[in-house]
Specification:
single chain; globular; mainly beta; 59 residues
Amino acid sequence: MIESKHLFEDGEKVRIKETGEVVTVDYWWYASNLGWTVQYSIVEHPSTWFAERELEKIS
């Protein structure tokens, strides 16, 4: 069983590292085809998902 650990919660504001854009997490899930990594759907980019390593918390 997969332990439920993820960095960001649904509705949380985060920053896309590459662009610096502040966005909102819509929901998260584990992608089994990518080795059970956490992926995030973003409200502002509904057709794109982001890996956890591509996002950062806003301090």
